[in-house]
Specification:
Blueprint (H helix, E strand, L loop, with lengths): L1 H17 L6 E5 L2 E10 L3 E6 L4 E5 L3 E6 L2 E10 L2 E15 L2 E10 L7 E10 L2 E6 L4 H7 L8
Antiparallel strand pairs: 1-2, 1-5, 2-3, 3-4, 5-6, 6-7, 7-8, 8-9, 9-10
Length: 153
């Protein structure tokens, strides 16, 4: 009886692996959405391995958003000191509440001492338009509004 129970459990476990979602990563381009196994972003092109095993190279300029490792990224205009820089960058969407979305953008800090340190900037966007650039004073309140825990580093 124990053997039958163990055998039945193994069969169910094997079937659960077959039924899992195959495309957890995806890329949205002008041509539509593609489910991917792997996404590698370069300076000019993204190298994709599609779910069916096909390898594809897509120019970064054609990608509007992508998702990998459970994180979603959208291409948005970058602002510095409240002014548009003219650059479009991929920002990680943290959470959406109504019309507003909270995004995180990481940049390498090329300071005199630590070259590999990342600096993160937080922005509140309403659609594709900047609503508010967040700083140390406004970030805790916005996190509470979005129902997120805030911890200062």
């Amino acid at each position: 009886m124990k053997t039958l129970c163990v055998l039945f459990s193994v069969v169910l476990f094997c079937h659960s692996g077959i039924a899992r979602d195959t495309g957890t990563s995806w890329v949205v381009t002008r041509d539509g959405k593609m489910d991917c196994e792997k996404i590698s972003l370069g300076n000019n092109n993204a190298r994709l391995v599609l779910v069916n095993g096909e390898k594809k190279s897509v120019p970064i300029t054609m990608i509007s958003s992508y998702s990998t490792n459970g994180k979603e990224f959208a291409k948005l205009p970058l602002y510095k000191d409240g002014k548009p820089t003219g650059k479009m960058v991929f920002m990680e969407r943290i959470k959406t509440c109504g019309e507003l979305s909270l995004y995180k953008f990481g940049m390498c800090d090329f300071g005199p001492y630590i070259l590999d340190d990342m600096v993160y900037f937080y922005f509140l966007y309403k659609g594709d338009t900047l609503h508010l650039a967040l700083d140390e004073k406004t970030l805790p309140n916005i996190c509470r509004h979005f129902g997120l825990a805030y911890s200062a580093k």
